Amino acid sequence: MNYNQEQAVFLQHVGELIRKARDYGLVLTAGELYRTPEQQALHIKNGRSKTMNSRHLVRMAIDLNFFEPGPDNTLKLVYDGDGVARLGAFWESLDPANRWGGNWPSFKDTPHFERSQGAFEAGIFSQAGAGPFGPRPRAGGANCSRTRWGQNAGTCPGMSNPYKNS
Ligand SMILES: [Zn+2]
Q: What is the rounded CA–CA span in Å between residue 12 and residue 17?
């Protein structure tokens, strides 16, 4: 799975999470999903986060606000309770990579749902010319992408054509 596919799977799971909340008696509103490094630095300064390694920086974390409907149709903001705990468990049941902030040993963060770093990402971070937002364009331009190797024999500096002899 490549980086964008990981991000897309994460968002699909968020969709399932939002639909499931109603079953547990919760109404949700949206908080943050993507954060710029500047926003993250501000959260650390204000004590809202402890790390510059946040999954929000790579679009694989979301914060949600939980509300319980009251008897007179008002909504009461909650941070824990049975419904919230069940929703956290549901999130982690969707995929082995999913982590709920309510299960963190310290600095519990119940509104936070994330997809943890997978095997693919662990690999791409160690490759030259790749980063958290995907591989950089290769020398020679867009036509030098791996998927077009077969059509561009000899035109991409530093790349060999694996189909040359086939
Ligand atoms: Zn968060």
A: 9
What separation in Å is there between the alpha carbon of 111 and the centre of ligand 1? 7
Cα(148)–Cα(141) distance, integer angstroms = 11
CA nearest 9: which of 120, 102, 145? 120
What is the whole-number distance in angstroms between the Cα of residue 123 and the centre of ligand 1? 24
Structural domains of the chain, ranges and CATH numbers in brackets: 3-120 (3.30.1380.10), 139-166 (no CATH)
Say what the pTM is: 0.71
**Ligand 1 mean position to 136 CA, how many Å?**
27
pLDDT tens digits along 51-61: 899 999 999 99
DSSP code at position 76:
E
**Contact in structure between 99 and 114 (CB atoms under 8 Å):** yes
